Amino acid sequence: MRKERQKVLILSLLGLVSVNAMAQQKAKRDTIKSIDEVVVTALGIKRQDRSLGYVAETIKSDEILKTQNNNWSQALEGKVAGLKIQTAGAGPLGSSIIKLRGDISMNPDQNNALIVVDGVPLNNNTTGTGFSAYGAGAKADLPIDYGNGINTINPDDIESITVLKGSTASALYGSRGAGGAIMITTKSGKSKKGKVQISLNSYSSYDTVLKWPDYQYEYGQGTLQKDTQGNFFYSYGASADGINTGSTSSAYGPKFAGQYYFQYDPDLEGQSAERKLWQPYKDNIKGFWETGTTFSNNISVEASNENTSFRSSLTYLKNEWMMPNTGFDRFNAAFSVDHKLNQKLKMGIKLNYSKTKSDNLPATGYSNQSISYFMIFQNPNVDLSWYRPIWKKGKEQVDQIHPFSSFIDNPYLIAYEMLNGVDKNFLTGNVNLNYKITKNLDVMVRSGMELNNELRTQKRPWSSANYLQGMYREQHIRLMDLNNDVLFTYRNSFGEFDFSASAGGNIRYTEYTMNDYIAEGLLKPGVYTLPNGISTISKFARPNDKQVNSAYALATLSYKNKIFLDLTARNDWSSTLPKENRSYFYPSAATSFILSDIFNLSSDLFNYWKLRASWSKVGNDTDPYQLIKYYNNSDFVGSVESPSLYPNPNLRPNMITNIEGGMDFTILKNRINYTITAYQNNSKDQIIRIPTLWETGYSTKVINAGEVRNRGLEMTLNAYAVKNKKFSWSINANWSMNRNKILSLPEEFNGEPYTMGSVGGVVYFNAFVGGSLGDMYGYGLMYSPDGQVIYNATDGLTAKPTQMKKIGNAYPKWRAGIQNEFRYKGITVSFSFDGQYKGMAYSQSHHKMTEQGKLQHTLFGRENPGGMIVGEGVVQNADGSFSPNTKPILLSAYYADYYRRANVETNTFDTSFIKLRDARIAYTFSKNVTDQLKITELTLAVFGRNLWMWTKFPLFDPEAATLNDNQITPGVEMGQLPTARTVGIQLNVKF
């Protein structure tokens, strides 16, 4: 066997390293992941997986297209150890951030993975609307998810995705790669024998709501009011039965038992002339939501020969989301050409254009203008159809129908009149030249760009709760990100050593502007133009430019293709740092040992054993304009206002040190592949903002301080449980855990916590030395020594603490995923589960619906005499002892107090879950059929996403997060929109 394995063909893989192509075809057929697999690494350099001293996982295009996500990144969920896709659950466009191996910084903007498309970094920043998620009663607007750079990438154009997890793997990307990198390679022409190949990919999918809260429909609107006979009653407006009880948002009214009361009459737009049956309308929330649809059609043409490869692709996607009158259209065009001009010079061009257009996207958050707010406040006895006319008779565009409270906007007004439009044009591309100077030396020159031109509009009609005379807003956003780099590469062999070295530089320039125009109040209702504004505010953006110049080098040495050593170095000069600290240098080293080859351990049972280790130090800069005082544009034309940030002219770069080690094994003729990795990151000199005294004239200042340590473990298993000529069963599984610890904080806090962020004024993410990022603090209950809840003897309500306490952590203890695929002849069945253990999330919706008696658990105590309840617990006596609580209070007061908004403890829940993330059944027609149809391939499939979920989280989705302006904050549900369950059908044809 050993001699047979020595029969190898030495190939040159892009001249970088020697590759052993085994003559043993049987081993190849049994291999899940080839030990000589080529992966795309930093700067777009292709390497052997065996030569890498760090983890680089590759996801092929087939995996991304299996279940046809509108946002390709969501196809990665649960499939890569240590990777988390975080969305806000805020609508169809679904802005996403990708996190690898947890948070490394107290600054949330510096915890995301870098997205790289064809070697060019993508700016994935999100521009918000300027409003927080909690806006109830603030006379303000709400966040809207307009999408970010990730969802402009067309999944039909993706060839593969390589995940570089540690900062060592992405060190050559400098500051932007501190959180790892997602390397996307788009498709290029690869047709066989120079023929033109045409591919069609078409799918239709349908969305319904995955999970609903457990609404109660046993009791209707009211606040436990009694009539003159002492009976609970209801009356819309004062009537012969008693006072008005129809203006409350609470559902502590009479039980539905066949009674008749004076209620709202939609024909009279007021109190009914006669008493009407007291009944629930069980579809009065769910009935508002529709079946969402998505239709997508893609056509691509490609061709290639020995000198040229070409590909062009067009895609049109139309989405109508589950909320009425929301959705988007997206058009994508891609063009790729690679041409060998002569024996020494090659040229490549790639362009990707995306146009996203929507007349209306849903607002999210907790405020009058969000549909979430209406869903919380809707009462069981209110028919949804009563709202459908939208406008009162004779008062179209002037006065809406919202008969139960002027603070609760009509849901159809929200859907059809409060429109949030977007027209986004997004272009990415690069031009590269490769010139072979000598046999061993070549040079690559590449220029990449990202252009975004976006118009957003927000329309608010007359009589809306926050804009009585309406509002119209336009946001004009322009982003230009240019990357120009050059890379020289030298390769040679010296006996049993292979050596390559690359050196080059990069200039990155970013320019961003956002001009904001607001017409406050509309002279003529229903006319949404800036000249129609009663008053107009124009905010012209100050410059927001940034430039980073870089020089870098990479050296790779291998011995007998068994021992590998990588050394990298990079130096950045960032315009966001002061001159004396602008230059910062960081190196990395990685090594791998193929122990199975070194010690001749290979056999049919034990095939491959690799040991790897790496170390790196990576610098990180910051946002522009924090070094000296810059004035902001004022709402008054021609004037400016003083900034609230106290600048720091002595900022230093944040430095992150990464240590990583692991092993890879394959056994049983490569049928089982197991990988384990352990890592540690230490992030020092973090660039953060802290509060400052108001008398300084500023609210915050920016400083270098704090250290965070991140440790984790990742395991991946790929296996063929069964593999023969007719049937195969493959299993891919992963598990990961991450723990971080705050090692130091700014001296200014003197042992007090540093509040990294807060949501809704109730949940605080506080940092303590010894604590963790994601720790959630807030007010809770007070307990006696034996663990019983303490109540006040005088009013029967819970005792109120004076200090906040730690409620939990937003991040889970561990995550895991498993994928199965079965193949029999032309039939392929695949499905994937993933989930997490622990983690906590606060729910604003749970607080408010419990306070109002809308959820099933508030039925407890409803039949008590007089609607009274005694809280289970104790009261503290004057001598300090405790005795049972005996003070009865109204049910409504009990639930409003025990689950009050500030009681983070009682409204925070375990976010453990298991999801059937996706499933697919596909049939690929045999060659006999395709030959008759004169096509080369035909596949028909049905698929689903989020088909089933187990969780104890009481609201829509345990993967809760809040869109707070432009920040996605996990661990807080603040007016979350429902998650979709999707089923669809897909057709793939190749000619």
UniProtKB/TrEMBL annotation:
Boundaries of every TonB-dependent receptor plug domain copy: 55-181
Membrane topology per record: Multi-pass membrane protein
InterPro entries (alphabetical): Beta-barrel_TonB (IPR000531), Beta-barrel_TonB_sf (IPR036942), Plug_dom (IPR012910), Plug_dom_sf (IPR037066), TonB-dep_OMP_SusC/RagA (IPR023996), TonB-dep_OMP_SusC/RagA_CS (IPR023997), TonB-dep_rcpt-like (IPR039426)
Superkingdom per UniProt: Bacteria
Signal sequence, renumbered to the chain: 1-23
Gene Ontology terms: cellular component: cell outer membrane
Chief subcellular location: membrane
Keyword list, A-Z: Cell outer membrane, Membrane, Receptor, Signal, TonB box, Transmembrane, Transmembrane beta strand, Transport
GO MF annotations, alphabetized: siderophore uptake transmembrane transporter activity
GO biological process: siderophore transmembrane transport
Pfam family of the protein (one): Plug
Limits of the TonB-dependent receptor-like beta-barrel domain: 421-795
Record localization: Cell outer membrane
Family per similarity comment: Belongs to the TonB-dependent receptor family.
NCBIfam families: OMP_RagA_SusC, SusC_RagA_signa
Name this protein carries in UniProt: TonB-linked outer membrane protein, SusC/RagA family
Gene source species: Chryseobacterium takakiae
